[in-house]
Amino acid sequence: MWTRSKIRAGPNGQLRVGAARNLEGGHDLQHAPNASKTAAADAERLGYEAGRQALVADAHRSGLLDVFELASLTGLTPEHIRKMTRG
């Protein structure tokens, strides 16, 4: 992925690209803080996801809700909920 850049002709007629940076390889130091923020947000999301799965599994094991009620509340399939409660 490339950022927007200015393309202009040099004195010998060749095209030159100014201010182009390759962002995929992480060569742009300006975006390093954004990468660390993204990594922190991903770690936080994974923590929330693990907590949600534990809560769904506990609700099923304790018999508070059956598989179909949990599926309708969480958006998961009944098969996925059964797999979560096996372990």
DSSP strand tally: 2
Derived structural class: mainly alpha
The value of Rg in angstroms is 25 Å
Give the terminus-to-terminus CA distance.
Answer: 42 Å
Shape: elongated
Q: Major sheet: size, sense and barrel closure?
A: 2 strands, antiparallel
Detail the poorly predicted runs.
Answer: 1-5, 19-24
Give the strand content: 5-15%
Order of H and E elements: EEHHH
Number of helices: 3
Please give the order of strands in the largest beta sheet.
1-2
Mean pLDDT: 75
Q: What's the quaternary structure here? A: single chain
Description:
By secondary structure, the protein is mainly alpha-helical. The protein contains three helices and two strands. β1 and β2 form a beta hairpin. α2 packs across α3. 3% of the residues are buried. The N terminus is likely disordered.
Question: Could you name the key traits of this structure?
Answer:
single chain, 87 residues, mainly alpha, two-stranded antiparallel sheet, elongated, disordered N terminus
Short précis:
This protein is mainly alpha-helical. The protein has three helices and two strands. The protein has helices at 32-62, 67-74, 78-86, and strands at 6-9, 15-18.
